[in-house]
Structure formats: C-alpha cells, structure tokens
Structure prediction request, 950 residues.
Amino acid sequence: MRFTSWQSSPTEEKVIRSILKGFDTKHPETPYLYQPIPGNYSEKIQLMLGTGTAPDLFWLKGYTSPSYLSFNVLKELDDYIASDASFDNEDFFPVFRNAFFKDGKCYGIAKDFNVYVLFYNSEMFEEAGLEEPPADWEELYTYSKQLTKDTDGDGKVDQYGLVIEPVHEMLMPFVFQNGGQFHDEAGNLGLTKPAFIEATEFYLKLYKDGVATIPTDVGAGWNGDVMGRQQAAMAISGAWAIPYFKENYPEMKYKVAVLPKGKQAATLAFSTAFVIAKEAPYPDDAWKLLSYMAGKEGMAEWTQSGIALPTRKSVAEENKFYEHPIYGTFMESVEFAHLYQIKFMERWSDEMSATMQAFFYRDAPVKESLQKLEEKISKYKLK
Amino acid sequence: MDKLKIIAFYSVLLAFTALYLGPFLFSISISFNADKDVFEWPIEFFPSNATVDNYIAVWEELPFSTWLFNSVFITLIQTVTNIFFSALAGFAFARLSFKGKNFIFNLLLSSLMIPGIILLVPKFIVLNEFGLINSYAGIILPGLVGITNIFLMKQFFETIPKDLDEAALIDGCSYFKMFWKIFLPISKPALAAVAIYTFQGSWNEFLWPVIVTVSEDMYTLPLGMASLRSELLTDWPLLMAGTILISLPTLAIFIYFQKYFVQGVASSGLKG
Amino acid sequence: MKLRFSSVKQEQQVWAMIFLFAPLLLLGIFVFFPIVFAFVVSFYDWNLLIPDKPFVGLANYSELFKDEVFIISIKNTIIYTIGVVPTQTFAALFLAFIMNQKIKGRTFFRIAFYIPAITSSVVTSIIFVWIYSKPGLLNYLLAGIGIDAQIDWLTNPNTVLPSIMMLNIWTTSGFFMVSFLAGLQSIPQSLYEAAKIDGANSWQQFWNITVPMVRPITFFVMVMSLIGCFQVFDQIFIMSSGGPDNASTTMSFFVYQNSFKYFKFGFGAASAVVLACIIFASTYLQKKYFPSEAY
Prediction:
C-alpha cells in the first residue's frame, strides 16, 4: 500500500512521519510506503492516476476536487465509513463532512482545514497608535495607509501597511464579503456581477495606491516572508504562517484577527481531503491508515503542529482550539468561511491566474478583463 | 598592434569574460554566505561570515544523494550505450554496403529536423503502455542512441583509409572483429566527443525527466533542484550551493577534455 | 563466431543488419513511430484520465486556432526567435573572432565563454532568477550607472520575455562560438595578410573576410539556433511558468501545459504538430533565402 502527500515544508514532513510512527505501533500488521511529492502535486497525481501508478491513499486539494470527482477515479467511501465504528463521521463539522460529495456519495475525508485571517504586527500597530485591527474595508484601507512609511528616510517606502498576493485565492474572500461568488450552485459564473467587479477593484486599489505591496516587489517568496522581514504590517494568510514565523522570525510580535468585513463577514476555507484511488490495490489497508490519520488521534497530532486546523469538533474542543488566542480566530472564521471548489476543468485556474497577473502587472481594465475571462472559462465547465 | 589598441582589445575581452563568468562567481559567493538575506547591497563578494554550512545542508536536508545517484546512473548508461550504438551504426553506414542504405540514412537525416517536442506525447503513451512511467527504464530508454552521434561516428569512420579494411579482410577478420579490434581503438577522439556530448546532454536533460518522473525518488539532479526552486524560494544560499554542485562534473569534464569538445563541434558543425 | 557467406555483398548485408538492429529498433520506437503517432493522436480527443478516446477529425486544430493563449504563444515564440537567433549568431561570431586573435591565455577565455553553454539550464535559470529579481544584481548594476529601474524583470509582462531571451543568448553564444572558431581556423591566413597590405583595419577584415568565409557555418548555426529557440522550454518552466498573464508562454510551454498539465493529449499533440510545421517552414525559408553555398 502506498500513501502520498505533498510536502511544503520540512516541519510538515516531520509531523507526518511522526503520525505514521503512531500508526505503526497501533497497526504493525499493515505495511505501507510513504512517498511525498515536492512540486507540481496535482499534475503528478493526475499523471499517476492516468498511468495506473497512483498511490492507494493520497491527499487531494479541495479546489481541484470537483474535476477529480468528475473523472471518476476515486473510491466511494460510504461503506468504509459505515463499517468503521471507531471513525465517528458525525464528529466532523458539517461544512467539511459534506465537502467531497458527488451525487450524494462521499469520496473524500477532510483531513484539516485552513482559512484566511489577518496577521498583524502588534509593535507596528502600537507605534502607529492603532489599538484594534481593521474591522472593515474602509479601516483596512486607512490603516494600511497609516502604516505605510519610509522608516529610514531615503525617500523610498520600506514598510507597507499590507502585503497581498496577486493570486485568485486571496481575492476571493473580498468577493464573498461583497456578496459575490465564483459560480452558483448550478455552475453559472459570477465573475461579471457588480459584486465581483467591485471587490476586485478594491483589492487592486490597495496595491495601486501604494498602501499594500506584493512579495515579488520586495524580492520575497510569499506574504509571510514579507511580514517577517518587517516590510509589511499586515498580511492575509492561513495558519501555515504560524510555524513559519516561529521558525524564521521568532522575535516578531504579531496577532491575528478575522478578516475585515465588507458587506458581510466572509473568508475562504481551504480543505484538503484524504482520498483512495478507485483502482487502489489495497483499499482496505488504505482506509485503515486514513481512519487513523483522520481519526481523533491522528488529527490531534497533526493539528497540534499548528499548520492546519481540525475538522473534528471533538479535536477542536479537547485541544482548546476555541480558547487559543491565535487559533480561536481561525475557529471563529469557520462560521462565515466559504469552501473553494470550482466545478470547472483545471484550466480555469491558469486562466484566472493570468487575469490576476494582468491586473497587477499590466493594469488591465477590471470589467473588460473579467468579462473576457468569464467567456473563456465557461468553456471548461465540468459535465 | 600599438599599445593602446592592445589595451582596448584586452579590456573588451575582460569585459566579456566578466559577463560570462560573473553570474557564476556571484552564485559561488552566495553559496558560501551564512547570511540568508542575499539582497543586502552592496553584497559582500567575499562573505565575511563565510561558511560551508549550505553545502552540508544540501547533503543533509535534501534528498541530494538520491538525485545524485539517479543522475549518475542514468548518465553513465546513456553514455556507454550511445558510444557503442553510434559506433556500430556509424560503422555500418560508413563501411558496409547494404540494401536500403541510402533510404535509411536519409530517413535519419530528415528526422534530425523533427523538433523533439512533437515526440513527447507519443513517447509518453508508448512508455505508459509498457508501464514504464516513473521508472529508470522510462527515463533512459528514449536516450540510448542519438542520431547526431551516429553521424559523428559515420563521418569519422569515413576519414579512415579503405586499405585498412582490406588488409583486415585478407587476414580473415569478420566485420565485427574488424570493427572491434581495428576501428574502435583508433577512434578515440570521435568516441570521446560522443561520450562528452552525451554525458553533458543527459546530465543536464530536463524536459524528458519532468514528464516521465512522478515521485521524488526518481528525480535527477536538475529536476530536483528545479522542484526546490519554489519550495526554497528564499533560501538562496542553499539553492546556489546545490546549483554549484550540479555544475561541477560537467565543468571538470569539459576542462579536462576540451580539445575533444572543440573537435566534436567542428566535425559535426562543418557538414551535417 | 564463424559465418559462411556466398559473397562479400551478402556478408556485408548480414553484418549491416546485425550492426543496425539495436540502434534502428530504438530509433524506430522512440523517433520514427512517435512522429507518425503524433499525427494520429492529434485527431483524437485523447485524455489520459478518460478511457473513451473518440475520433474528432480536425476539431483539435480548429479549437487550437480559436485558443487565445495558443495565438499568444505563437507570437511570443516568434518574437523570441527573431530576437535571439541573429543576436546569438553575431555574438558567437564576434567571440570567435576575438578568440582567433593572437591572445595570451586563450584556453582560459575559451573556457570562460563556453561555461554557460555546458551548464545545466536549471542552474543558469536559478542564478538568473536571482539576478533579475527586484532587489537583485541587475537592478543594482543599473542603479550604479544611474538608472533606477526598480523592475522585477520576471514578473513584468514587458520585460519577462526579453529577460529570458538575454539569458538564452548568454548561454548558447559560447557554444556556437566554438563552431565558428573551427571555421575561422580554416580560413587561409594569406587572405588576412593580403587585406592588411591593402590597408584594411581589423573591423574591415572581420566584415569583408571573416563573415563571408564562415557563411556555411553561419547557416548551420542559425538553423540550430532557430530550432532551439522555437522549442525553448526549460527556462520558461523554471523562471516564469509562462507568466505573467501568458507574457512568456511559448509554444513548447503551451504543448507541455496542455499535454501534461491538463492531459489533453490530442490537443497537445495537435499544437506540437503546428509547431513542427512552423519550424520546418522557417528552416526551409532560411535555406531558400540564405543559401549556405553563396560564396
């Protein structure tokens, strides 16, 4: 039996290996091979599925899940869930329990979740005389402006109020907050609705007005990097920034808050699933490992690493996630979090990324570009 | 030439040298830098806090040794088979007469014009049919013999005087024996050129391994380093240390065998 | 091993078959068959993950020319090739000309110019990502001569392609320099001496003797360079992934993405066939309008 995950940091791999050790002591009779994939995960998994070399058990990124479900390459899990007494499916938060369904059948177990929240540097806030994090769009803008400054007096800004990334995932919370959506239940795209356009315009305004920066502008790899280097006072990120800060910038004092709201509070939820390949040679063993890793024990250990949050109510409660000064904010965000699962063929994501890049690097007109994008993407709707 | 001209000439030469070597020198400098922020200008070209930690980290924190093994294994096999097969085929085209010789030769010649990109999908489908995706065989098989190498060998064998075969045949040699005992030993320069080209090509090959490998344990060095590009985006010293290590074998071989390099380019370049 | 043959001719025939068996088998499987098969696949809706592979005739081709990204990729590839091929050829010839002078330390300089060519594209790409980044070496040097560029060269749609083109010129000019060098050494020294007597300076010698004498090599270099440029992939894959906003999506990158990211093999194969046709056509044109035997 083979198990595959991606690997975005050494910390992550360490935790996985430690959980696997726990599984080994509990189920020494079940041998398996763990093969992480470092880059281009989705492509590689598809490649393996298509060439009959897929692992039995693997992680599936939430936003690509609809296309996998439509390709019919995953094993249906309902029977396993029903016959595994220790699994306790009811323990999952409903939004995640039902996240990987097609035609009323379950194909994936949400192993954890993440939401975008606002990270802010409390020292910079203090220095600027700001007490609370921004609560709405207006405050986000004015605070960012206030926090943007030239600290060494050389005429160049070296501390920005906010750092954002020119990627569609990070735009989406603003769209949801503004009452828009990518597509509705029936799959009708909402990219040209005023709510979507307005949100995009606001997101871009932050950058164009110079109160927010993007990582490449300061030679950084991503948001957390920029904030850690003291080049931005606020960053939108998921929980993966927490272990990163701890390891690389332990001195930085920061806090987290729910994202500032627009017309309504909203954020984007990422959820990764455990899935079993339809053609898996050892599906029973795969389920055993799944049941352990996504079980109470495995999930508790995994989420204690601070990379992601538990999708099980019991794990969240027992490990005091709600009371935690940082993780509490993430749990709070679940209330208004939207899952990101797009029911289009994968090329939508590249088309959307290209458009985001055009906004940031080419000053492309928002409305026209989104109209063009909607036309292009509509071709890739999944049947 | 007068003095001024000489000075001008050498300044141009040195400017070009700086242009061609500069990026590598910076990369070496960064690879020894203990400071992870490599954008503090002016950068210290000779880092005051020089360290070899980055090189140690490459070995210890990355699956570098696995990738190194894969690269060495794949490169060696392809180099040896290319030498052997291209010599065999080159000998047949240069020294034997057989039916369809011109046809086959022209087929080879025209397929040289086929861009490799068109072969990707079909090669992939073929290897998938054999279940060879993500295996050593899948990476190695398509590169066991190269048409350019066959030409190089054919051209070389054609420069050897005809008397040699006749003498050998009178002595009762078979064609294989003649090839093995007489032609190969005197073909060292051409064989070396084939070897060096194949070595360099397969050591640096990127596109095909990207397509045919899936799991990290099958990656070659270039592929592994490229996959780290996104992961270690900010750890430039580590990335640079890795890139320096990858470059060393080709560099050493080139410096050592450079006259064969030049001969190879010259003979393959003059007449196709 | 002793074999008996009725004639020398037959003997050679048998030996040729033995000698060529393995090489031709391999080339058959991995070159000749795939060429034909690429055309076949391009007429099917062939998706890796979907077992049903219907014949669609020319649908992939017609879809291809309606695909905006494909059109952009053709445009980018042509810009790339037109920008790189002549510059690279000229740079290579110029370097070779310098190297052919009586200079001290010739071996050292030859190695220096050749190193980029023998180094893995992954290595040079990674180094240049650093150089081209906003706080990187290039902007620093530009600032040194008074240009405050403040550009992130690889995420700016106007600079990304030229930046990668520069990298390509830098890496391969040394390779082609060696081709030229071999040709230069075969030019009779007497020609230069005659020119000197006529009072020609170095530049005139370069332009009036060297350039025409190496014309066959120039043809070879340009064809090789052109074929390489049309297929540029590694640098794009590593440095820009075709972005931003497809500003650096080349045809081979388009082929790769559609074949091995979206797994639309039929569509990918069709785009590869179109690319191959463009390469054929341009080498043909080059042969026609730039014959190598003109002098």
User: Anything to note?
Assistant: The radius of gyration of chain A is 21 Å.
